[in-house]
């Protein structure tokens, strides 16, 4: 056998060419990417957020025609974001709020500057007031790897099935990973959905790194808490987003638990004063109060921190939400779907044996964390708890239709079964908390049923 001697000059030339092709870093791009929308609870508005790798002006051009010039302009600002990883990668996050939008009208837009424009996207401006029927996609725990539900969500979005998305914590797995490149990858993945619908969020435990810095920088939510807690109105519903994580990552400040609790109480008081206009109160937070999964998460413990508070006594949310009559509580964290019977303090409070979700005497809990991520699905305990109505260990997401002031429709879509509806319920509330002076009477207890007097909600 003849031994071939290497030609060192050829090897060097190949190495040089390889470095020239693959090793030279690309110049930072001014082209917008990771485009997404949010609604800052200002009627007639929509906020566009995107990323560039160099500082550029922040402008959105928009109009009503799908082709041709976009005659309307809006300017905004950008903020540099430096990830906490070892490379200290710098991104430029741009935010522009469009105002004066016609309710229910479809707009075409692009974002960027003369240094580079995004492709064109479409969105439909939210309708104003309480008298319409919003449809939402609801899920948590969606990763950059194994995002099982995303292709179907993209198709749903293209077909105009939703008015907004509620992402109930845990993004990308994790946005800070690989010096925040996983966050970039995730934001690009959701762009076909998030650039067409307001993508409303709350933080989960996977956002914790560097004091939730990637979450705070990349998403633009209402209020002044950097998206940790806020509320907004949508049709006949008042939606409250909050952070369960303040109860677990206390090294970022115990004061956040107290601040959020007092903000929640104040917001719930205002929401109850507005019940005649917006009868439904819906909350979204990442870690549930109850679950029947086979793990050691907080919701499997009787004295859950979210439910009972710090040390089982301070700033618990179950009593607060029950006191102010929260109707529907949306959760994630467990990589499965679970629907509970109306519940308070481990007791089932069904409206009746035949119609448990008609005038329920306690809040309805939905856990929807099976959109798909690298951690796969979470198994359930062998035997369901008495308060667990349905458990589904399949990839999927939830559809929420707030039909009017008395009817909410919930469906669970199974991606494992090619979009089959595996859960389908209606929640009916035919009475409203009335007011006696400044005291709010929660209508769930039977003593309040006779006092329901607001037109349209009488039994």
Automatic annotation (TrEMBL):
GO terms for molecular function: acid phosphatase activity; metal ion binding. The keyword rRNA-binding does not apply. Its EC number is 3.1.3.2. Residues 135-337 form the Calcineurin-like phosphoesterase domain. Residues 32-124 form the Purple acid phosphatase N-terminal domain. It is an enzyme of class 3 (hydrolase). It catalyses: a phosphate monoester + H2O = an alcohol + phosphate. Residues 1-23 form the signal peptide. Residues 362-423 form the Purple acid phosphatase C-terminal domain. The keyword Cell cycle does not apply. CDD domains: MPP_PAPs (cd00839). InterPro entries: Calcineurin-like_PHP, Metallo-depent_PP-like, MPP_PAP, PAPs_C, PAPs_N, Purple_acid_Pase-like_N. Keywords: Glycoprotein, Hydrolase, Signal. Belongs to the metallophosphoesterase superfamily. Purple acid phosphatase family. This is Purple acid phosphatase. It comes from Equus caballus (Horse).
